Amino acid sequence: MDGIKDKIALVTGANGGLGRNVTQALLDAGAQVIGTSRKIEQSEFHGSAFMALSAEISTAAGAKDMFDIVLTRFAKVDIVVHTVGGFAGGPSVADTDDATFQRMLDLNLNSTFHLLRAVLPSMRETGGGRIVAIGSRAALEPGAGVGAYSASKAAMVSLMRTIALENKDRGITANVILPGIMDTPANRQAMPNADVSKWVQPANVASLILWLVGDAGRDVNGAAIPVYGTDI
Q1: What pLDDT was estimated at residue 232?
Q2: Is the pLDDT of residue 63 over 90?
Q3: How far apart are CA 205 and CA 211, in angstroms?
Q4: In this structure, is residue 74 part of a structural domain?
Q5: Which of 50, 155, 158, 214 is least enclosed by beta carbons within 10 angstroms?
Q6: Is the per-residue pLDDT at 3 higher than 90?
Q7: How many domains does one find in the chain?
Q8: What does the alpha-carbon distance between residue 174 and residue 120 come to, in Å, rounded to a whole number?
Q9: d(Cα 72, Cα 109) in Å, to the nearest integer?
Q10: How many secondary structure helices (H) and strands (E) does the chain include?
Q11: Looking at residue 186, which CATH number applies to its domain?
Q12: What residues form DSSP beta bridges with 36?
């Protein structure tokens, strides 16, 4: 993939249902990949081009500490793919407790803010970069029973679009992918009777991410890209 070979890529949630596909796709394209997660082992991916880094990025201190390690090792980051997120659903807004609402904000919005606030000064200094975050269809099409999740994802889309506007002068792009239900082990376990043939394949989302962070994606900035599978 043009524009990816030998780039330094940071993937959050690197061993998750989507993150694993993204990490491997970037490695296959020739990038040096730092894969972060709360718990991740070096042995989860093969080759010297991968570095595992356990981190908690839902706090400002955790995100800063993680990125300080990255800068010490690599001096810069060219690509950031933020796949960290979480889901909670069921109760109406009136019945949603404070802890659930805060957890959705921490996982889906605050992690994005803390991560990119740590990363952007370095990207601006080096004069370029590609940022892709994973949102959700629910950010644009909220439904009953998912108020905390939808609100946190919608706020994240707004944050990413703002980042795109604020940093376009330095050759930095920031885009959000909005998948429908993805075919991950966790979703299969949670919805064992669902028609998985309609779900989005993580490998296809990974391919789109590769396109966005490569040379061909340079003209796409501030986009919220729907990837809904056949369930539309």
Answers
A1: 63
A2: yes
A3: 10
A4: yes
A5: 158
A6: no
A7: 1
A8: 11
A9: 26
A10: 7, 7
A11: 3.40.50.720
A12: 12, 53
